[in-house]
């Protein structure tokens, strides 16, 4: 983690403008083509959901703005983000929160995520990482939504990307999954969101 020299930061004017908003967070939902990911996950015998969490984390990590964090008067840059996702054991109706390092291998992450989720007995255990280093993931596999709105604290410094994924459906022979992401406009613009979705699409197709 490093501290940003705000006075020489190319984003300072945009940061200051959006700091005037009472709630500078905004959210967008885009359909993501997950056809290839579904096929690869089935072939490799791993969770489609865990694999998608991995690829989203990898895509966000690759774009600096998502790793900026507001800490009081400072802005810092983390070298990586940590996925923290909801999960539900088959046959249960209450979810748990599972948090672990992404690592560098998709299949190995899926195996570690499954073991951690299976072994975890608490719904919300203590998290060993700084909370603002997390990505908050939710999965709503029962709904193919077109928009989503998170619950939130009114905290202008909240820098945690919040990703919500829904039920995929077939459209013109392809599987499309709604993926919503909420970000802080003090740190992230539409350009960076577009870059994120493009990066994710490419990573899915290159599996």
From TrEMBL:
InterPro entries: CAT-like_dom_sf (IPR023213), Cmp_AcTrfase (IPR001707). It comes from the Bacteria. Pfam families: CAT. This is CatA-like O-acetyltransferase.
